Amino acid sequence: MSDVLLEIRDVETFYGSSQALFGMSFAVRQGEFATLIGRNGMGKTTTVKSIMGLLRPRAGRLTFGGRELRAMPAYRVAQLGFGLVPEGRQVFPNLSVRENLIATANNRARTPDPWTLERVYALFPRLRERERNLGANLSGGEQQMLAIGRALMTNPRLLILDEATEGLAPLIRQEIWDCLSRLKAAGQTIIVIDKNIASLLKLADNHHIVEKGRVVWSGSSASLRAQPDLLHKYVGV
Fold it and tell me: What is the chain's percent helix, strand, coil content, to nearest 5?
């Protein structure tokens, strides 16, 4: 397990007195494309918030590169090398595309070939065309491209996308999947939450099915394809 980058063990997280995670456990290895899948309200976004320090778990362990996350504030967690594309995109509405991309740009890990404006524009040419447009004036698909580009500009060790293609037109969805395929081929470690199971099965190395605040099954795309009853039971497809 020496190549494990992120490990979550027996995590319990609450919203006030209401418990949302009940022993959440899974691991993601360096260079792996992993997913969290399940119905709405099962704890996937709560898991992301717990990882990122936006919610403080009351029990369990979260380690990233061997470092314990639970006691860290969110900004310190982010500085360890997380790139988050949050649900709802949350781009800066009053900043231009270029300003959004450079606002949090950094290369703390001193990556020899870091993400730059030119690399992001090459990945998403539409962003170059919209460089001077405000975030608020972009389409939903363009905002998602911008949110991904903004996360990449931090040169993350782990990229997390919560609802990667929700609400996007089919052509834009395909563009996002193509982008993720290229990132995977380049060795980027990725966690994706999305409802498009067919696309996830094509791209992901391993899947973690979440039900009522815990992982109830983990396995490869081949294993999940061979057990369609699991998707019917836990995802409804």
Answer: 35, 30, 35
